Amino acid sequence: MGKVRLDFVTNSSASSFIIDKNKFDGEFSVEGVFQMLKSLYKEAGELYNEVVTYVAKKYGLTEKGDYYYNKKDERVYIDDFFHKISDELREKYDVDSYSLCYSDGCEHRLDEYKTYEDYTADGNTSEYGFSICDYRLDSTEITEDTIETIMWYTDPTPGYVLETRSALLGLTSTTYDDLVRKEMLKLGEICIHSQHGQIDISVVPRLEKLCVYSCDHMG
């Protein structure tokens, strides 16, 4: 189980998942992590469909879109019904009802990470999506996501990480990036960043098991 930080030190809806290389099967790369995410989305979708069918059959309901309908044609949101019988679902499927709240995102349908990057860059999602960064590569950009992740998981955070580049007298931006990259690599080599919690809640519990550090809401 990866380390999950529970206290709140920032004011952010960002999330980060630093992948544990020792728990990862397959090619440990940005593309490899993306393909792993696709498989987790597929598993979450299959479980959701299984539970939807089980509940409908047991309680005599009919599924239509996001709703169950009873014989009186009264409807209830499927996720809300899951929460009402959460203890039953936890006992049968060993999963929290909130983790069953699956949304059919684009991630698992796109072939490769580059396709996903292009898809989000073209404004095809309501939020900014997520990014997968390999900090072993000098070409990986140091961003606010990087800084915030280091701040969240290190205590105390190295002072230079908190400084702006312009305030670092005598340091070029390249030198600054190298210093921050080394600090990030102490945590892990590949990290999934999201500024708006764009990893689906149904995927998070599965993903956290593959992380050395993880937080779905860093704030």
Question: How does this structure look, described?
Answer:
By secondary structure, this protein is α+β, with helices and mostly antiparallel strands. It has one domain (3-215). 40% of the residues lie in helices and 14% in strands. The protein is built from 8 helices and 8 strands; from the N terminus they run E-E-H-E-E-E-H-H-H-E-H-H-H-E-H-E. The strands form 2 sheets. It has a 5-stranded mixed sheet with strand order 1-8-2-7-6, with helices on both faces. A hairpin with a 2-residue loop joins strand 3 (62-64) and strand 4. Helix 5 (144-153) packs across helix 7. It is elongated, with a radius of gyration of 20 Å.
Write the SSE topology.
Elements: E1 3-4, E2 15-19, H1 30-59, E3 62-64, E4 67-69, E5 75-77, H2 78-84, H3 86-93, H4 113-121, E6 130-134, H5 144-153, H6 159-162, H7 173-187, E7 190-194, H8 204-208, E8 211-215
Parallel strand pairs: 1-8
Antiparallel strand pairs: 2-7, 2-8, 3-4, 4-5, 6-7
Helix pairs in contact: 5-7
